[in-house]
Amino acid sequence: MSEEERIKKFCCIATKGTLDMAYPPLILATTAVAMDMEATIFFTFYGLEILKKDIDLKVAPLGNPAAPKPIPGIPIGVPNIVGVLPGMTAIATMMMKSWMGKANVATIPKLLENCQKFGVRLIGCQMTMDVMGYTKEQFIDGVEIGGAATYIDVAADADINLAF
Amino acid sequence: MEVKKELDCKGLICPEPILYIKKAMGEVESGEIVKMDTTDKGSLSDMSAWARRTGHEIVEQTEEGGTFTFFVKKK
Questions:
Q1: Is A106 in CB contact (< 8 Å) with chain B?
Q2: Residues A29-42: pLDDT tens digits?
């Protein structure tokens, strides 16, 4: 098949289980399909959280100097050390959900639904599932399970490879 | 210009307008026109990138009061 006819492929790895880091792989994979490409996301380590049916992702306020400022218009952030206090993760998560909602960004469950509708291949990493105690039943429908060789096989043919 | 299908993507933000236009391309025949309205400023560069990549053609593009209108001809 000539280069012109060959369908381009997008592949990425999702390794983070925080709310902010769940957006990029899902947004880019669905966009790749919308641009007539095939897309695969390989979920490993904390990234497996994104696949859970009872999804409950949070924003980590610690060690994130770019965390948005709590009071609109006042450029004072939350000091990093305050991030260790009980409840700060919940507050940071609530704030991010509120900004995303105001900006009308799709929610993570909606983005996952788009992935399923668009036929994005969602692969859960078998090894980290075993290590971290996940079962396939905890995940949304249509998730395939595979290991490193499965990823390398997909990645070797991909035109775009990213890690998040 | 005969418009076969209209898409109202006003208020939607990246990447949703691109997902909707992709879906619409599957619902019309080759040569037919889909009209799409967006308010997402990113859709200006995103729509041209999408068209370049997929081969569908933006035959006309207008802007009025913050609404961008694209007329897309299916390849």
A1: yes
A2: 999 999 999 999 99
Return the closest-CA partner of residue A18 out of A96, A126, A122. A96
pLDDT at A83: 76
Distance from the B38 Cα atom to the nearest Cα atom in chain A, whole angstroms: 13
ipTM of predicted assembly, 2 dp: 0.85
CATH number of domain containing B23: 3.30.110.40
A154 with A133: CB under 8 angstroms? Answer: no
Q: Do B13 and A104 touch (CB under 8 A)?
A: yes
Q: Which two tokens stand for residue A74?
A: 């006042």
- pLDDT at residue A102, as a whole number: 84
Which structural domain, as residue segments, surrounds residue B39?
3-73
CATH architecture of the domain with residue range A9-163: 3-Layer(aba) Sandwich (3.40)
Asked whether A39 and A121 are in contact (CB, 8 A), the reply is yes
Catalytically annotated residue among B3, B8, B13, B14: B14
